[in-house]
Structures are given as structure tokens and as C-alpha cells.
Amino acid sequence: MHHHHDIKVSGKVTHIFGHRLVVATSKDKILAAIGPEAAARLNLKIDDQVEIEGEQKPAEIKVLRISVNGGPAVDTHDGPKHKDHHEHHEFSAEAARRIAEKEGFKIVGELTANKKHYEAIAEHDGARHEIHVHRDHIMKKHKLR
User: Fold this and answer.
1) Average pLDDT over residues 127-140
2) Does this model's pTM top 0.90?
């Protein structure tokens, strides 16, 4: 059984460590984890005013939504795993095939679904490769001898 306490706080960013930030509220300073994806997208700076919503964990707040300097609240998308079902439906064998073809690969045979990616044998410039097309649309290839 999981307990999560929804919490909403606002304050000023005083420190940034990768995808974690220290927010000085009117009462104290709190550690908030926004996740690497949101950190890259939001480009937060010291002294930004933020309003965060998330789950209170023992050591920090896991941020699910954040508003910066009075702007609209945005999802951090690094929220709890049960919230990202939709992402798995959007990533199909057909999507993986399109990604591979865009990279110049012709799939030979079937794409095999894996937990984090699709695998296939594909041809590129006359050579055969084992390719893995990941959910984040990054493709890794290994040349077959």
C-alpha cells in the first residue's frame, strides 16, 4: 500500500542541483525533485519564483506540476509510473518502423516488442544490422557479421 501526500508549496529557488532544487518558502527550505526531462525543458534559474505540486517523500517533494514566475502550471512528466500508460500505446511497432526508415534502415522480417524497445534485423547500405528502437525514439544499431 502506498501513501502519498499531495502537497502544494510556493517560494523562491535558492539552489539547483541537476534536476533537484531548493525552494525557500515562507516557513523553511525544501528539496524538490522535478526530474531530468523537466529540468532540461524548464531551464530554471536561481531566484525564480515557483509554485510546485507533488508528492511528499521522506527526503523531498517529487514534483508533478510546476509553475515558474507566475506562468501556467506544467506537468513535469516524470511523475508516478501509473500515469504514463498513454505513452506506451503511442509507441507501436509501426512507429518504430517509421523511425528506422527515417534513419535509412529497411526492416527485414518482424519487429519484436521488448519492455523498453522494439528489436529487428534491418538492412542499411547493403549491410545487415540488429536495431533497437527505444520508446524515446532513439535508435541503437549493431552491425551483424
Assistant:
1) 86
2) no
